[in-house]
Design brief:
Layout: E1 9-14, E2 21-26, E3 34-37, H1 58-108, E4 137-139, H2 150-153, H3 188-196, E5 203-204, E6 207-209, E7 229-233, E8 246-251, E9 256-260, H4 265-269, H5 277-293
Antiparallel strand pairs: 1-2, 2-3, 4-5, 6-7, 7-8, 8-9
Amino acid sequence: MKKSPPGAIIGAAYVIGHESPHVVTGSPRMGGEFLRAERPSGVSLGRSRPRRREGFSLTELVVVLGITALLAAMIMPALRGVQQTAKRLVCSSNMRQIGIALNMHGDDKAGRLPFSHFCSLDLDNIQKQAEPQEMMMGSIGVGGISLPTDIYTHWEGLGRLTNAPFAGGYLDNAEILYSPSHEGEHTFDRYELMFEIPSSGRIFLNYHYAGHLNEDGFMRKMDGDPTEVLVTDGMRTRSDFNNPYGTNRLHADGSVTWWSDSGGLFHNMIPLQIEAPEDQQDIYADLWNELVNSEIPGT
């Protein structure tokens, strides 16, 4: 096969009767005559196909993200509602267990409810004013009162039901006294160790106790009266109220009902800070009366 002279033009042409291109060579100095040569094996002279584009374009990506955001905006409120309902059910279960513990305590104590240092007519200190705002407390701390038996009496109200040292042992787990809906500073993790080792620090719970004495100074009992509310969500300050839309209520017959506060009126009645003892009595008398006598139906 002849070599192509310098300056030769190499190209591809289809020869009649052949499907594949053949290499032809030629030179202008040869009068335009082209010499035919077979295509070398393994050499492709055809035009390569352009690669297909992979992935999304910017417009497609923006559309997908927009649809995803829209779906998320539609689903999230429903998910929050389901989460709130689940937490409300756990809170209701906690209160039922507290009710069982109160009944067990009553069986051992002639029907009496756990003692609170913050009730009116405190028999240990007749001069002491009632402090109903503090009845969310579970322990006043070792040394918190001027009695010779502080180690045995530092437990307060519902804290006396726990299985902590020197407490009653009616609740297997102190975490029952804490609500999953609580978003304030009084979490179980903060106080867990203090339930195991007596401490000088105060322990706050997530539920508010009505106390062992009523407004008239008479003993409250687990007497089965469904109109008597013994325990509700924390009301020490507004940040302690576990659910801004209402609260579970534990009644003296052991039943638990949901009390709706969809308008937030009750929530706004709760103090923002600790009030003076002389002011607490009127404020909390109104709060407990609202929970008992309100015409807003519970569900």
